[in-house]
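Researcher: We're reviewing a set of sequences before deciding which ones to prioritize for further study. For each one, I'd like a predicted 3D structure that I can look through quickly. This is ABC-2 type transport system ATP-binding protein. If possible, include the structure in token form so it fits the rest of the review sheet.
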Amino acid sequence: MPPPASSIAVRAEALVKTFGSTRALDGVDLEIPSGTVLGLLGPNGAGKTTTVRILTTLLKPDSGSAFVAGHDVTKDPDAVRRSIGLSGQYAAVDEHLTGYENLYMVGRLYGMSRTDATSRARELIGRFRLTDAGDRPAKTYSGGMRRRLDLAGALVAEPAVVVLDEPTTGLDPRGRLDTWEVIGELVADGTTVLLTTQYLEEADQLANTILVIDHGKVIAGGTADQLKAQVGGERLEIVVGDAAELAVTARVLGEVGSDEPGTDQNQRRVHVKVDTGPKALVEALRRLDQENVAVLDVALHRPTLDDVFLALTGHVAEEEPAAEEDPKGRKKAKTR
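Model: Here's the predicted structure for ABC-2 type transport system ATP-binding protein, in token form for your review sheet.
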């Protein structure tokens, strides 16, 4: 049975998809309450985009079920398509049309009247801060402007669910921040968002809940704080003035910490996981003072999503995967 559309905007259960000998999805479950952001976090090759393609009716699962806005993705794909907006990894805009013309065309393709398509296009041009460029060809736009135009295109039909597949891939820091702002505005307006990303800080910034996916399986889920709590403790870092003092600093941090300390010779930095936070910091500084160690810098960090991902998977989130196969069995260096 489909989930209640009023409370759950997207639900998938036990999704499986294989391409030749590659099992891209291996029993993926996910659920997105209406008006929230779910961050699907994982490296290239994890299965993020395969999940997106199933939820947007571009692929059929081998097994499992999925509902979007109360509609079954395999039994009622047309209704699903009418309920979603999709922005992929690369801005899908016509470079030879103006920004306004791009949005007007999308509106007409959705069946809007000329008057309604015109009004909606002008509204979104203003909302996405493209007014000054709205009548210029899209080929004159910067990467960040094209991304905003692509996001605007995904909203023309005012969909209940917006799917953003690695929306900041290839953007510079300014463009990434602009995109984050736009996504924040969507959520403030009550839109449900599925966000796939391999950028840990992006998930931390935007998502209400996060699923960590690796090799086609969901390996952890929760809020950013809940995931960080799985790692436990904090990290104490000490920078000393003389590399000759690294050994004694490592010994002291090993005594106050909860695991083996790590040392960076080039940065003259020693770090260790601690369970007692500020108490461990104070005790470490007291002991280093007794040892006459000159401390240049000290910091106490909460676990980051980088720490979480490394602890869960044994590798970093932006690690390149081994070659996989496309649906015709040919080897590919990158799949998602």
